[in-house]
From TrEMBL:
The lineage of its organism: Bacteria, Bacillati, Bacillota, Bacilli, Bacillales. InterPro entries: ICMT_MeTrfase, Metal_cation-efflux_comp. It comes from the Bacteria. GO terms for biological process: methylation. Keywords: Membrane, Methyltransferase, Transferase, Transmembrane, Transmembrane helix. It comes from Melghirimyces thermohalophilus. This is 15-methylpalmitoyl-4-hydroxy-2-pyrone 4-O-methyltransferase. Signal peptide: none annotated. It is a multi-pass membrane protein.
């Protein structure tokens, strides 16, 4: 894989993140109009910081650290691309409720269609997969390991507990998501 592919991948990643921020802002306005509110605002900068650090570290490790893609780069890159399909499916399934922030509309039923039929947090699974696979595809192993661990810490310590707590309080999340795993899907529902 030549370095040109790296710049194309980085441009695609930046465009994707920019489009997601625009969509998230539009959705946030709509959610607030429905009586929704935000929780976890204090840890949101940590989440943003992880993503910014991911982009910067990946760029620097590949361009300045002279990381070389392994000969088996198609495997992690294919996993990264499959994660993007799951990301689009997750965003599409949540519709106007998808956001980069934790926004909840009291009394609304959680989405249990699409990938949410099988697991609680498919979009977080996407992030976990992409932080590990994209750097690995380009030989940026430090970025893959360090940012994956940092991201898991932020997700498990702050993000997921805050999201699940407000959903349990404000929606029928507990009943609707009963039996669904956080990370790995249970393929056969009862």
């Amino acid at each position: 894989m030549e370095n040109g592919w790296f710049y194309i991948a980085m441009a695609g990643l930046l465009l994707q993140r920019g489009a997601e921020l625009i969509l998230a802002r539009r959705h946030a306005d709509w959610i607030r109009q429905q009586g929704g509110y935000e929780v976890g605002r204090s840890h949101y900068p940590l989440l943003v910081g992880v993503h910014l650090l991911f982009i910067a570290a990946l760029f620097l490790e590949v361009t300045q650290g002279r990381a070389e893609p392994p000969h088996w780069w198609p495997v992690p890159f294919a996993l990264f691309m499959m994660a993007q399909v799951l990301r689009i499916w997750s965003i599409h399934s949540l519709g106007p409720y998808w956001n980069t922030r934790i926004l909840v509309v009291p009394g609304r039923s959680p989405v249990v269609s699409g990938p949410y039929r099988y697991l609680r947090h498919p979009n977080y699974l996407v992030v976990v997969v992409e932080l590990l696979t994209l750097p690995t595809a380009f030989g940026a192993y430090f970025t893959a390991i360090f940012l994956s661990v940092l991201n898991l810490f932020v997700l498990l310590k702050f993000r997921i507990p805050a999201e699940e707590q407000v959903l349990m309080t404000e929606t029928p999340y507990g009943e609707e998501m009963e039996g669904r795993k956080r990370w790995l899907p249970r393929l056969r529902q009862k």
